Amino acid sequence: MLKDVKIPEISENVTSGTIVEVLVKVGNTVAVDDVLVEMETEKAVVEIPSPYAGKISDVLVEAGDEKHVGDVIVRIKTDSGAAGEMDEAGEGRQQGSSATEDRQAAEPVEKEEKPEDAPEATAKDDAAPDQEDAQTATEEQKQPDAPRSSAARETDASEDREETAGPPAPAAPSVRRLARELGVDIHAVRGSGRDGRISQADVNDYVKARLTGQPAASGKTVVEDPSAVYQPTLPDFSRWGTVRKEKLETVRRLTAENTSAAWRIVPHVTQFDEADITDVQAFIARHAKQAEKQGGKLTLTAVLMKVCAAALVRFPAFNASIDPANEQMIYKDYVHIGLAVDTPRGLLVPVIRDVQDKGIIDLAVAIGDVAQRARDKKIKPDEFEGATFTISNQGGIGGTAFTPVVVWPQAAILGVSRARRMLVEKEGEFVPRTILPLSLSYDHRIVDGADAARFVVFICRSLEQGLTILL
């Protein structure tokens, strides 16, 4: 029996990636969990394992190909009674797996993602397309194999893709497929499920509403996705001289998409201030050896992260997200801070979790570890998820200030520039001090200017008072 192996849902916010290496050839024999390809996403290089045991009959990708979740990468010829082979229902299960434990789950991905307390009607909406998917797969397997050109394969793959401008839509693959078939931008559909999850009924309601000009049955007003904007055609630059064209790498392309969407969604304001970190530098010097003994390097970033965690607890609006559709503010009782890391692949933002419960030395060790693994491509996709706040420290490069872009749906991001020695008036005398420029960008829908000023002042005072304010 011929089985299609598709790119599974790797993590919640990853919808596409670039094939880095194909590890199998036509005729190879593979077992369950053997790695077929390596794919680079915006977050990490991940391995795509085989959900079936059998012989490779067709390889549909090559290194450098841009592929999306749900795209077929290889076809495997299996024996119907082979050990480890999944049944038809298991194919849906494979689509939602990114690790061995996920592939051992007993339910399809749509059921895994559906909340336990979701209405019965929503479960039916999500389940029905799975049956259609299985039927379609069976019908395809009945068709005789024929040689296919790479162009034809690319055409098939492109038909199964969705536009990914802005944050990925919270919808199962079958629902996204329905939206594509109806010519609907899935990002423009308001979901009626928990956390805005989109069902098949929501897509149908959206189409009816667009045709009749009436609100959708869910009661939500139909609006266009704010990240879907007109993109003008570039001029022919070769008219004025020689040009070179290079394909955007995955990280750069997705960074462009995410920052553009955030800029359009979030009304940005940036608050600037300066902190005297002379005493903090002395603190770092005193405790540097202690950090080294524990395998870390004590830096200003670790100190800033701890201070920011205290500020986020003191000012919970900066640790919140806004849900305009449901007219709610969502406050998180945890503090997970993303750290912008400059890597050869581009900008990556791994997350340090539960910062409020960690000491500065512990943070120094964690920061060094996660930053190095991000540069070495050894970090897991889920280590980029769940941040409630972000720090971008450019002090090692230079600059006096900048306006960092808020990482949607977070409320704020702190930019750090290069510290410099300055003469500062203190108790009637001018003395040399080390001054650190800070730039806080925030979502004005969530935070007012006065609160932003208080937030930055709290950070500055914590640094200037030798961290005693944290005690």
Report what the structure shows:
It contains twelve helices and 19 strands. A hairpin with a 2-residue loop joins strand 13 and strand 14. The chain has helices at residues 88-95, 100-103, 109-113, 120-142, 150-159, 173-181, 200-212, 250-265, 278-293, 300-314, 360-375, 449-464; strands spanning 2-6, 16-22, 29-30, 35-40, 45-49, 54-59, 66-68, 72-77, 268-276, 320-323, 328-331, 337-339, 341-343, 346-348, 351-352, 389-393, 412-416, 420-426, 429-443. With 471 residues, the protein is of the alpha+beta class. The longest helix has 23 residues, at 120-142. The chain has two domains: 2-153, Beta Barrel (OB fold (Dihydrolipoamide Acetyltransferase, E2P)); 268-470, Chloramphenicol Acetyltransferase (2-Layer Sandwich). The strands form five sheets. Strands 9, 12, 15, 16, 17, 18 and 19 form a seven-stranded mixed β-sheet that branches. A four-stranded antiparallel β-sheet has the order 1-8-6-3.
